[in-house]
Amino acid sequence: MRKIVVGCRKSALAVTQTEQVISDLTLLSQEHGMDFTFELKNIVTKGDLILDVTLSKVGGKGLFVKEIEQAMLDKEIDMAVHCLKDMPFELPKGLINGAVPKREDPRDCLISRSGAGLKDLKYGARVGTSSLRRSSQLAALRPDLIIEPIRGNIDSRLRKLENGEFDAIILAVAGLNRMGWEDRITEILSPETFLPAVGQGALGIECREDDAELRKLLNLYNDPQTALEVTAERTFLGVLNGGCHVPIGAFAVLNQAPNREAEATEHALQEITLTGMVGKSDGSIILRETHTGELPVQVGEEVAKLLIGNGAEKILTETMSH
Ligand SMILES: NCc1[nH]cc(CCC(=O)O)c1CC(=O)O
To answer: Per the UniProt record, which residue ranges are transmembrane (predicted)?
Structure first.
């Protein structure tokens, strides 16, 4: 019998999704005759304590994960569940992403007080978002909107909307679904016009590289389709050298592509279609490119290359220097 201690931030979303993963892993471990039990351990991170400061000024979203990672290296905890979009590209030596479970809805949504969708929000409505990616795409669709920063966990953002600080806010559908708050959604924003963040809706499960026992279980929990999709998206982000404070969006889907070779072998080949965007935060320029291929890394690199060819680097440098 091995007890796995699962580190978890105190936010409602972190606790809910960690509990969900623990419940999945408990079942999976029983199904495979493995003998694991799990215990959730709350960890208060610096990122949780400085909610009022612009996060980028104090070290970015990496703050949320740093202390959890130290606890993992110190063996105070054995694993942690992260929203993949908040998970740094490079993990500290000794830690790995042991599984990417099946992805939730990757899209963004609008939640408005009046019930009006994005097209019908009143002229000059105040929309809360701190994401440059979201403001860029919002401003491109509705240049009249007044976009203002909003911080905090999803529960406090919803409260700020109710209090009348904003006419609408943008949130990830995945977070609302996981909380059981999907009834709050006014309009789901289609990736056709509004690309989500890289890895949005997916989770990453961090553990120690040398924890072979736990990694065996996490391997079973990994969803290969999601893993391929987020690999394409994260490669794309890596090439553009984007952290979470740049107006970059991406969305990859894996489709079974019947082609001639596949017909011959009766095995459908998998193809990945990735769309990526880079925009100015005022929405005055939005660059989008799509590419389809078989290898996620290649597809990610290709879309990044296409965007760089269209002037993405200039936009990103301008944004960073602001
Ligand atoms: N930016 C914080 C964050 N990190 C992950 C989610 C939602 C869940 C997910 O994308 O997996 C959210 C809230 C949001 O953007 O609405």
So the answer is: none
